[in-house]
Amino acid sequence: MTTIRDISRLAGVSVATVSRTMSNPDKVSPATREKVEAAIRETGYMPDMSARNFSTRKSKTIVVLVPDISNPFFSRVIRGIEHTAQRAGYSVLLGDTRGESEIEDSYASMVRARLADGVIQLNGRLPMENGAVADIPLVNACDCVEDARIPKIQLDNAGAARAMTEYLVSLGHRRIGVTKGPSESRLTRERLRGYRAALEAAGLPFDEGLIARGDFSASSGRHAATQLMALGKPPTALFCLSDEMAIGAMHSVWEMGLKVPDDISIVGFDDILFAEYCKPPLTTIRQPAEEFGSKAMGMLLSLLQGAHLAETSQHLPYEMVIRQSAGRPKA
Amino acid sequence: MTTIRDISRLAGVSVATVSRTMSNPDKVSPATREKVEAAIRETGYMPDMSARNFSTRKSKTIVVLVPDISNPFFSRVIRGIEHTAQRAGYSVLLGDTRGESEIEDSYASMVRARLADGVIQLNGRLPMENGAVADIPLVNACDCVEDARIPKIQLDNAGAARAMTEYLVSLGHRRIGVTKGPSESRLTRERLRGYRAALEAAGLPFDEGLIARGDFSASSGRHAATQLMALGKPPTALFCLSDEMAIGAMHSVWEMGLKVPDDISIVGFDDILFAEYCKPPLTTIRQPAEEFGSKAMGMLLSLLQGAHLAETSQHLPYEMVIRQSAGRPKA
DNA sequence: GTGAAAGCGCTAACAA
DNA sequence: TTGTTAGCGCTTTCAC
After folding, report:
1. How far is the CA of B55 from the C1' of C13 (A)?
2. Whose CA is nearest the C1' atom of nucleotide C3?
3. What molecular functions are annotated in GO for this chain (chains A, B) (predicted)?
């Protein structure tokens, strides 16, 4: 293997000079620089990054904790992260945690083991609750904890849910069912808050029985919808707190022989790719997924450069995407 | 920071002994082992993996090259990889290459830079064509190159496509359109080969005009279908070489006011999650995605242990999943 | 602008 | 069974 020593010998300079031409070319005279570069070219030398990282006590790697990598919304977020990470010379280590805290913790401890410089958590939970959190560079995105010490970036979930509910109300709906995610998740709580606020503003009652629990997956949406539609007095519209659940709900309703939106309106949240390809195309809230990723990575980058970001909480804009899955309720 | 030195002092042993208790506990007497473990517990010491990796000249990391991370089929493959990697103590670095060879190359060269020990390529292309390939541990999965030097694991794509085509023929179809992927991709070529074989066996002509090109994405499927349906004599069935394209095709056909499968049959390939949720549910070929991932990782692991795997080419079984998107052609 | 040399934290001969 | 010690390949003072 070619090492920096070989290059230094070949170019007739010291290893320090070789090191400099690689990281601070302007600290080296053009003449020697040329000699070194020639030697590098000639040998096809590639520096041992593992040695460099060891020496600089950096890994140039960050880990992202994602509850479910096959969720289409997250894949877009990840792509945003990867893109800006790459431009800054960072690699991203993917941790598919399935929401399990031990897995989250084990990934997070990679920064203590110097295998990673920081972490982006896409789930509303702090890895290694017990204090350790303070000293690892961490940003929380999408689903966020309330902890003020952690810089975070999220949607105005309550506002978005409120807007969607108001839209449904404006269409004439009075009984709006909800398929929610896990109740621990702040996402669920915030969206539910927006839903209630809209109801209240419209003078409509909040009916606990209209809320069914899911876990954001299509199959859970299917079950939740089935359950809601079996009610004595079923809702005329379904607000699914994720597009995947909405797709599951549409399927369930279709199996029951009902038509969307004629018999029942269904709306989602996220605007994943398939929302557009639903039959009928799904009305939903668009989240700027890639931007979530790139902004989160940007924050982590400044954190890594020593910025003091605690108390930072950024919001990203949502957008209502009206397609054809919601209409007026039947007379 | 606590280092191995600190532990050795605290336990009153040498650093070598500390190192041994961590990696070869049985080479250390119970008494000293206990002392060392106590010191480790007391200090909360965590070994610097970056130093260990540097010293052992391993990274315990592999990179997986995936053309599109938001493709639901790949996310499942990745999950399979991650799972078995984790059990073997490896981390996985995700490289979303968007099919671009420079990105593939730059990721692959992480092995040379000692940032990774090996790579799994999910795309039918060899990174760093120019020879370098021979000396990096690499396994090729899903979409494979023909190069015999590379261990590979794939589906019997031709067989699967043939089976699906035969099914369509058995339903009475005589004009079967195809939306294919990029023609460079071996996936496309193999599946097309199966399609032609089935046609031939049934004594049906092969009509080049019935083949439309896509890139496996939903939007490309939509365009391809539109194009095919605009033919003077359109096909009565569409064999889309990916579920995403099939979903796009169903959408296109729906926009034209046609019914699936009454007016046109549509089938896919992959059996992604949403295939089941289509309207009507999509008839398709199921690929064992997670298994692709775990098997590929398993191969890479043995490669990394020095096994000689060239010429290895494993096949995984497909499964026809008959749902409701294909039926008899209109009279 | 350049070089000598001291680490970085660990592993692995080798010796005892 | 345990300790001594020489690296691993690079970066980074500190002199010159």
Report:
1. 14
2. A14
3. DNA-binding transcription factor activity; transcription cis-regulatory region binding
**Token pair for A122:** 């896409």
Decide which of 1.10.1200.10, 1.10.260.40, 3.30.1020.10, 3.90.180.10 is the CATH code for B1-57.
1.10.260.40
Q: Which pLDDT score is estimated for B146?
A: 86
CB A249 within 8 A of CB A221: yes
Cβ neighbours of residue A308 under 8 Å, at least 6 residues apart? none
Max distance between CA atoms of chain A, in angstroms, equals 89
CB contacts of A50 in chain B (<8 Å) are 50, 53-54, 57, 59, 113-115
Reported as a pLDDT band with limits 50, 70 and 90, residue A170 is very high
Q: Decide if B81 contacts B92 (C-beta within 8 A).
A: yes
User: CA angle B81-B85-B88, nearest 5°?
Assistant: 155
Name the nucleotide nearest A3; use CA and C1': D9
Are B274 and B281 spatial neighbours (Cβ–Cβ below 8 Å)? no
User: Strand ranges (DSSP E) for B52-144?
Assistant: 61-66, 91-96, 118-121, 138-141
In the numeric block, which tokens belong to residue B308? 């000689």
Beta carbons of B137 and B119 less than 8 angstroms apart:
yes
**pLDDT attached to residue B1:** 87
Residue nearest C7, CA–C1′ metric: A55
- Cα separations in angstroms, A29 against A3, A17, A26, A36, A158: 22, 10, 7, 11, 59
Confidence category of residue B196, pLDDT binned at 50, 70, 90: very high
Residue of A nearest to B112 (CA): A46
Contacts of B98 in chain A (CB under 8 A): none
Cβ-defined contact of B69 to A78 (cutoff 8 Å): yes
* Alpha-carbon span B192 to A40, nearest angstrom: 46
R_g of chain A computed on alpha carbons: 26
pTM listed for this prediction: 0.93
Q: How many CB atoms lie within 10 A of CB A185?
A: 20
Instruction: Work out if A15's Cβ lies within 7 angstroms of strand D.
Output: yes
| Gap from A19 CA to D10 C1', Å | 8
Domain with CATH 3.40.50.2300 in chain B: 157-287
Q: How many CB atoms lie within 10 A of CB A286?
A: 17
Distance in Å, alpha carbon of A251 to nearest chain B alpha carbon: 6
Q: Any atom of strand D under 7 A from CB of A114?
A: no
> How large is the angle between the packed helices A157-170 and A186-201, nearest 10 degrees?
40
In CATH terms, the fold of domain A157-287 is: Rossmann fold (3.40.50)
How does pLDDT run across A64-83, given as a tens digit for each residue? Answer: 999 988 888 999 999 999 99
Percentage above 70 pLDDT, chain B: 98
Which residues of chain A does CATH 1.10.260.40 include?
Answer: 1-57
Tens digit of pLDDT for each residue in B122-132? 998 888 765 55
Q: Which residues, listed in sequence order, are joined to residue A286 by a DSSP beta bridge?
A: A270, A319
Q: For B70, name the nearest residue in chain A, comparing CA atoms only.
A: A75
Residues 269-308 of A with CB under 7 A from strand D: none
Region B285-293: mean pLDDT is: 97
Q: Per the CB < 8 Å rule, is B54 touching A50? A: yes
Q: Does B96 sit within 8 Å of A94, measured CB to CB?
A: no
